[in-house]
Fold:
Amino acid sequence: MKLEGKVAIVTGGTRGIGKSIVERFLEEGAIVILGGSRVETAKKAEKECLEKYPNAQVVGVEMELTSTEKVEMLISKIEKEYGKIDILVNNAGITTTQSILELTDSEFDQVMQLDVYGIMRMTRAVSRVMVKQKSGGSIINTASMVGIYGSPRQPAYSCAKAAVLGFTKACAKELGHQNIRVNAVAPGVVGTDMVKENVSDEMLESLKKMIPLEKMADPKELAGIYVYLASSDASYTTGAVISVDGGLVM
Ligand code: NAD
Structure:
């Protein structure tokens, strides 16, 4: 098992890509703290994991990533309870499909608060623990291909995901000497509720025609790359942005 005994935090772990990451991490022996925006969904995800993996060590908690105070409290509680944090997956994210012509400050802010500030708050709090514990760690940020190439009707989301890439590289450069690796995964189109809620069937069909592998990804097809980046297999990988998009962008 590649992550035996490692303590991992996965934000947005209740569904979609995050849930697949949580499951693969458990299969690899990690102790997982999964986060959701509501305690009910986090506990439901915890229960589902325990039904599937009865011997797993997993706990679902509400993670209010838009509050610095709550993030600091959460990380200090996790540090006290588990004694260390080896892996942080900053996966929670939201989008808006509002055109730049209509976008309001508050819609823009909402995306930034979770997709950018949320990652910054979690990384800041967790990397302080990782520096203190001296054994290093792995931080993995879920970006998106739209952060590299942009997407019409997604100016807020494209901007947020581009920020994640710069943030990833800056942190990789700053924290490398502490043996803290920071990388990003840039998914293409993944079959999750986020896509169902924001992409029309017509748009999906035309996207599929542009993907060399001719389909959108199953969330399970993303999880392996997170296991790799979290594990010692990636001990010399930092500041990387790994596209997992069926060849859509190359
Ligand atoms: P999803 O909507 O299925 O899941 C989002 C997760 O984020 C949920 O677990 C939810 O609880 C959590 N979340 C939402 N708002 C939150 C808040 N305010 N506080 C804490 N947690 C919150 O999304 P997904 O498709 O699985 O996306 C996961 C990540 O992958 C996101 O960062 C997304 O931007 C990125 N991504 C997705 C796709 C795709 O095609 N689905 C493509 C590229 C990147």
